[in-house]
Amino acid sequence: MMKQIPERLSALHDVMKKNSIAAYIIPGTDPHASEYIADYWKEREWISGFTGSAGTVALTLTKAGLWTDSRYFLQGAEQLKGTGIELMKQGLPETLEIIPWLSVELKAGDKVGVNPQMFSANAYSSMKAELGMSGIELVSIDLIDMVWNGRPALPSNPFFVFDTKYNGKSAKEKLNTLRAELKKAHANVFVMSALDDIAWLFNIRGNDVSFNPVVIAYALVSDEKATLFIEPEKIPAEGKEYLKAQGVETASYLDIYEYINEIPSSKAVLIDGAKLNRSLFEAIPQGCVVRNTMSPVFKLKSIKNETEIKGVRNAMVKDGVALTRFFKWLEENVKKGELSEMSISNKLRDFRAEQELFVGESFDTIAGYAAHGAIVHYRATPESNFVIKEENLLLLDSGGQFFDGTTDITRTVAMGTPTIQQIIDFTLVLKGHINLATAIFPVGTRGSQLDILARKAMWDLGVNYGHGTGHGIGHFLNVHEGPQSIRMDENSTTLQLGMITSNEPGLYRANEYGIRIENLILVVPAEKTEFGQFLKFETLTLFPIDQQLIDIEMLGEKEIEWLNGYHSMVYDSLSPALSEEERDWLAKKCAPIKIG
User: Fold this and answer.
1) What pLDDT, on a 0 to 100 scale, did the predictor assign at position 72?
2) Alpha-carbon torsion (385, 388, 391, 393), positive or negative
3) CA 300, CA 293: separation in Å to the nearest integer?
4) Which is nearest to 182 in space by CA: 274, 283, 276, 271?
5) Which residues are within 8 A (CB) of 148 and not within 5 positions of it... i.e. 6 or more apart?
């Protein structure tokens, strides 16, 4: 691919000149603000060869750069070799961000082009304003489509109906709830582009992208009707009848532009400007009042109903059974010296696939052995693939998509005799994990207010980690779901009953090892006092934490009680589904720690 990149850049330069475009920006996203995207939209990968999940290319007629964060510095350097594109390391003091860089490289009167489908309405407005301060104009123009020969087709896989026995609420009920939310927002029409919001609202699922069971579509919901914009070949026979019964009309995918154009100027249009792409925003008639606020569906789907929560509990048991069989197998086979990061990832998938209602993995397994564990979003490749030995640590972050729920778990295990430093580091992470898991907090608390609980033990010793502590998770949907989070960055969304987030503090020593302990936690009621209603977390994930890596002396009595209680719950939940040999193995891993 590297040989083709300079040719592609040259072709892009030609169309830039023809259209009087001095610079062009190419992000790694799609018109739906998705994390995982269909091949058709991998414009940044096509122009640069860079395959990381985060990164943006910006180029002038003489220079080109790829901006990405520290997770991808090594990968970026490797994949950009010989392309003529410079790696721009975001977060370093010497690296200018894209807009300031363009302001230096260009002059007043120059034009910067972007494909408006690939930028949210909010991001576009922000760029336009910032470039405008330097007298530079931002223009909407799709140049990649003019030069990408042999572009892959859009996925044409039919969707399938996601049964209410798994999700608990019909699309008709959800549409009624949404319309009530529109009324509260004084809006008549809601323009939807986020694929997981659409999948949740209409109770449909598909396999158009990797890992997230979504369907490529747009939607418009008004007081009177709901329209799903989807290519006709993607609608199965039973899907037509189903949508009709739920009061949903259909139109072709790109017909949404025409429908938006025809919205009467007397109507108020609700958009989520952080998600809706600029191209659709530009289609809204001038006279319409635009209400730009967080998608009401985004908020509604973050609060799981009883059926969804019950399903997630079922999925956790299946996940725990698969992990028990996998880690038992790993211990028995590592001594052969034939296992690698890639081969164990494949084996784990096989164990999950044996479980009922398994659909696929919820993301690419992160199997980071030894130094690779310190690369937060590491993904093994044939070139980087470490052989697993009976020494050091293995960090394994993985998850499954089941019809009844989505899972995401990280365990760090000692493959040999751990060092004193590894034990101290692991115990610090465990203390943070337990501290968050046992939090009690008043209604109205934000995730950013709890984040310190996971970091305090580390901060006391001058240690920290760079990623967030917790992300929301979908129900047989996206493994990363908002709007809630637990992280240092401010987020106005409060933690509410029925929300599920991850609890995943970590500690990473570059070129040595990485440690992360991740469980999924559910917000449940704690108690009501004269000071109001308090909430707490219930841990949902079911698999033991490696006791070889724990320094008991560093734990307080309450922390040991939590660990013993957790391991007792793990054993009781998983043992009925295991063989006698597997139960014996699990019993050893869940053995209680004596207090005092």
Assistant:
1) 82
2) positive
3) 14
4) 271
5) 43, 46
DSSP string, 219-264: EEEESS-EEEE--GGGS-HHHHHHHHHTTEEEE-GGGHHHHHHTS-
Contact residues for 113 (Cβ-Cβ < 8 A; gap 6+): 16, 19, 21, 23, 24, 25, 139, 140, 141, 143
- Sequence letter at residue 1: M
Q: Which two tokens stand for residue 148?
A: 């990408």
Tokens representing 320 are 């725990």
Q: pLDDT, tens digit, for every residue of 130-151?
A: 999 999 999 999 999 999 999 9
Q: What is the mean pLDDT of residues 475-485?
A: 97
The total of other beta-carbon atoms located within 10 Å of residue 225's CB is: 12
Residue 1 above 60 pLDDT? no
Q: In whole numbers, what is the pLDDT of the chain averaged over residues?
A: 96
Q: What percent of the chain stands above pLDDT 90?
A: 94
What is the reported pLDDT for 596? 65
CB 515 within 8 A of CB 373: yes
Q: In Å, how far are 25, 205, 368 from 164, measured between CA atoms? A: 42, 12, 38
Do residues 385 and 236 make contact, with C-beta atoms less than 8 angstroms apart?
no
Q: Which amino acid is at 155?
A: P
Residue 160: its H or E element:
strand 160-161
Q: How many residues does the chain have?
A: 596
Task: Residue 536: name the closest of 568, 496, 567, 503 by CA.
Answer: 496
Predicted local confidence at residue 376, as pLDDT: 83
What is the average per-residue pLDDT within 105-123? 97
Q: What pLDDT is stored for residue 508 in this prediction?
A: 96
Dihedral angle sign, alpha carbons of residues 540, 543, 549, 550: positive
End-to-end CA distance of the chain: 62
Helices (H), 38-156: 43-48, 73-79, 98-105, 121-132, 144-147
